[in-house]
Amino acid sequence: MFLYLIHNFLISAIRPFFVKEYTDNEIIECLRNRQSYVVQYLSERYMPMIRLMVHNMGGSVDDAHDIFQDGLIIMLEKLDDKNFVLTCKFKTFLYCVCEKLWKTTLDKRHAAANYFARRDEPEGENDFTEHIDQELYMEIFKDVVDTLDPVSKKILELYWQELSPQEIADKLGYTNGYVRKKKCEAQSELIDKIKKHPDYKRIINSENAILGIVN
Amino acid sequence: MNDRNRHNNNRSVNGNRKKLNDRFDDDLSLNSEDRSLFGNISEYMQGRLDINDVKNDPDYNSIDDLVKEMVADYKKNVPVNKYDEKFIKDVLDRKAAEDKLIRETNKTLNKTRENDINLVTAEWVKEWHSKKQSNGGRESDEEIKHFISDSMKSKAEDTDRNIAGTTKTRSNRKFSIRYISLAAAAVLGVFVIVRSLLPSCDTEKLFASYYQPMDAVSPVTRSMNDVQAGSLISAIGSYKKGDYRNAASGFEETIKNDPSSISACFFLGLTQIELNNYNQAITRLSDVVNNQGEYMKEAQWYLGLAYLKTGDKKKASECFEYLSKSEGFYHDRSEKILRRLK
């Protein structure tokens, strides 16, 4: 346990000094040379988008992982072709590939479901409740973010788009210090409001009750 | 939804690394529960904003046909390339395992706080201390215990007095067993310590600690024509840059045009090591070694390392023995490896 903590602390302390944002050309070049760190970067940067897309279309976290993996393999094959020129943003391309892949996977699943009567699988039920919980969490997050004042909301949105304090300050015409202060306040306000949200309290209470029964 | 600590605030949009001081650093002020909650919000919002961004991208619809075709092709001939599949899968699985570890640690931390385990254990320690302080009562308890057990013992001795000799030997045997087991434990302990201090001869580890890509310099190209020399130099350039796929095809092309090019053969061997094709690397480097000319020692060294990676200790030892017998850059390190292989 102690080692885990040290490990995590080291990761969180060291990583900011090594992680950087890659341009599309850098991503393509690194992928062509099979540099593993760029795959790690892509997973960290774009997995949330793919996970949300798959979730919105009825998939699980594991589905998203598989789709992301297959999507990257498809892109790798395409990028190896030196004549291939990327005509749009890498992000758009990756999303489009993963979306198409997930849709074909879904079609296959539906087709299979039509042929075979669905068996009752306890695992599926668990996934279903998990799905509902996630849905609720997302609703809460969306609601609470919308209650923030426009400036705080904008700063947080730019922060989530990986902009630095200085870039946000330049974009919105504030000082660097103001952006940092405002982001910190907005973050605390967000956490506070979510914790006080009646639905959030309900989910946490029911989770604790289930844990209590299990233990 | 996954917990996600954000460590990537210093990323730049234009691809240049940002100044280290230009990043948000206030995540550390949050406790672990809040941090994981904010991580969840961030992950969701990031995904949402990215999807909005993609959906508003005018190119989103225009690449539709191309992507459809790509996905259809992929679905038709799965698996495409085992190497690529393994490459992506390994990285993503490692990342998923790392995320899981962070998630579980955070969960445990939250749980610890929720159940006030710290408070409970603090209470136990306090209780133990207070018991220790009130030693008087405990001592009287101990006295009673000793009195009863001693009297029981003496009673047993009384009844067994006529067979006292046997009892003595039995207790002696007990002692000797105890001493032997202690000695055995000590020997085992010393063995474990000595074993852990001695360098291991795990060939993979040896390879990892000694292997470094060659610091390539421009080769001698006197016997070549301009085109051949050009392709060799550009392939070495690719090797230096870490573009090993291009480098490999460049070297192969040079060898095709000039099968006697030892430089190309040597560098192709090195490139194959980088591409994890160790058997091909061994073939190429063996050719260079057998030629007994240019790059002979370097090829011996990398050939030895490639054998280490494939686990062939005997062949690896032969290479390092040759190098340890001749003077030069590889002499000392070869001797070190040989010592660990024996």
Helix and strand layout, with pairings?
The complex is a heterodimer of chains A (215) and B (342).
Chain A (H helix, E strand, L loop, with lengths): L1 H13 L9 H9 L3 H21 L4 H20 L9 H26 L6 H26 L2 H11 L4 H8 L3 H21 L1 H17 L1
Chain B lengths: L31 H25 L2 H4 L1 H13 L5 H33 L2 H17 L1 H25 L4 H34 L5 H8 L15 H16 L2 H14 L4 H13 L3 H14 L4 H15 L2 H13 L5 H11 L1
Question: What report would you give on this structure?
Answer:
- The complex is a heterodimer of chains A (215) and B (342).
- By secondary structure, chain A is mostly helical.
- Helices cover 80% and strands 0% of the residues of chain A.
- In chain A, helix 4 packs across helix 5 (90-115) and helix 7 crosses helix 9 (176-196).
- Residues 1-19 and 120-125 of chain A have low confidence and may be disordered.
- Chain B is mainly alpha-helical.
- Chain B has helices at residues 32-56, 59-62, 64-76, 82-114, 117-133, 135-159, 164-197, 203-210, 226-241, 244-257, 262-274, 278-291, 296-310, 313-325, 331-341.
- Chain B starts with 31 loop residues before the first helix and ends with a helix.
- Residues 1-19 and 161-175 of chain B have low confidence and may be disordered.
- The chains are: A mainly alpha (215), B mainly alpha (342).
- At the A-B interface, helix 1, helix 3, helix 4, helix 5 and helix 6 of A face helix 1, helix 2, helix 3 and helix 4 of B.
